[in-house]
Specification:
Structural class: mainly alpha
Radius of gyration: 41 Å
Strand content: under 5%
Helix content: over 70%
Shape: elongated
Number of helices: 5
Order of helices and strands: HHHHH
């Protein structure tokens, strides 16, 4: 992976020096894009560092090549140096974004959503609310009626069972008489 160039006077990352500010003003959206790219570079550098660390042999008494070890350690030191440069660049971008956004008033999320409300939508919302309320009341009434019907059905079943038992008893008495 190619090493990102260090921020210089002509690059967008160099906004702290007088030449960088005099050259051109970088807007906040561009700074955010630069910050996103910097974070991606930091992640890839970190992955490379872990790859190097995984491939390194520990000096645990096993014979190893000193030259290879020194080479890998040099690569690791270079990656760590580049990582610290990227973190400094990210800090500069972060500070500049905060500086650019410091004067902005906080805006609620609802105000950021473009929405035009006219009388017809208000009326439709009101009528929908009424329909919902009426449907809810109707459902509640139906549930109450169903409950009462179940109670009446249970009562009728008990009466039928009592009549059946009464008829059984009457038939039993008539059978004994004969």
């Amino acid at each position: 992976m190619a090493t990102p160039p260090a921020p210089g006077p002509g690059l967008p990352g160099a906004f702290s020096g007088p030449q960088g500010q005099a050259g051109r003003e970088v807007n906040t959206a561009s700074l955010c894009r630069i910050g996103q790219e910097t974070v991606q570079d930091i992640v890839s550098r970190t992955m490379e560092i872990f790859q190097l660390l995984r491939n390194m042999q520990l000096p645990n008494g096993v014979s190893y090549h000193v030259a290879t070890h020194q080479d890998r350690q040099g690569k690791l030191q270079e990656h760590l140096r580049q990582l610290s440069v990227l973190f400094r660049k990210l800090r500069l971008v972060y500070d500049k974004c905060n500086e650019n956004c410091a004067g902005l008033d906080p805006v609620s999320m609802e105000q950021l959503i473009p929405y035009v409300e006219d009388e017809s939508t208000k009326h439709e919302d009101h009528s929908l609310a009424n329909q919902l309320r009426l449907a809810s009341e109707e459902r509640r009434e139906i549930v109450e009626v169903n409950k009462k019907l179940k109670q009446k059905n249970q009562h009728l079943k008990q009466i039928m069972d009592q009549l059946r038992n009464l008829i059984w008893d009457i038939n039993a008495m008539l059978a004994m008489r004969n």
